[in-house]
Amino acid sequence: MTLQQLKYIITVAEKGTISEAAKELFISQPSLTNAIKELEKEMGIKIFNRTNRGITITNDGDEFLAYARQVIEQANLLEEKYLNRTDHSTRFSVSCQHYSFAVNAFVDVIREFGGNKYDYTLRETQTYEIIEDVHRLISEIGILYTSSKNEEIIMKLLKKNDLVFEELLIAKPHVFINYNHPLAERETLSLKDLEDYPYLSFEQGEYNSFYFSEEILSTLDRNKNIKVRDRATLFNLVVGLNGYTVSSGIISKELNGAHIIARPLNVDEYMRIGAITKKNMVLSRYGKAYMEALKLHTSEF
Q1: What is the pLDDT of residue 257?
Q2: pLDDT by residue (tens digit) across 18-29?
Q3: Which candidate, 125, 95, 139, places its Cα nearest to that of 229?
Q4: What domains can you pick out in the chain, each with its CATH number?
Q5: Can you give the pTM of this predicted structure?
Q6: 73, 66 contact by CB (below 8 A)
Q7: N or C: which end of the chain has fewer CB within 10 A?
């Protein structure tokens, strides 16, 4: 196995076809194909499935590519330190529930490292997918919460997938509402206060059990329910329908606008929000910087 072979498979994965990757790498298609086959034979796995439309990455390939990217990142660090090379394209990926502080921390990392070339990914996605992404090393870091209702199940799932949970903060549940909502003048809110208003939540696909719900207290019966996929839609409905959602109370006016406010919810519950990473894996410099930025943005809470 060589660094060149690792660069080859990373380029193929990015381009989606052998032909496009060969053009990018300035080598012939047969040479690239042979290099990949030799690597697959040496490692004893199949990295790509070949089809008439291009290539797809196997499950083994997903995991192998994640490790390959880390090896290339370390090699790039050596070249930067000893050869003064700074023309590498940096890569970093995070999967998270819908938290503004996770976005703010991501912005900090890009501002710190930036450069002329980079390939960063921030996936605000479903809870089960966050765990899968970090397990398969699609993302280096994941962010989710546990509570008294789901903690046992989530922790068992993390352990099964060789993941570890690092607590960032413990938050009391808050209600996000429009700033001119009929209840906006209340200092705190109860579940009874909210009975007549639409409840907004993020749908979880086929894993739509309350264990994977992004919103705490999701098992309660509500007369008006609306599920959405993205944060912008949710907040638009908060404003347009006087709807509400339940979250951590951490809100960013820069990202979410001044129309959304948070009010404490009178319930005996908590949200333990943390970052998940692969067990025994050393974070990249981007991962370390992101963790520091997360702690900075959550420290006041």
Answers
A1: 67
A2: 888 899 889 999
A3: 125
A4: 3-67 (1.10.10.10), 88-169+273-298 (3.40.190.10), 171-269 (3.40.190.10)
A5: 0.79
A6: no
A7: N
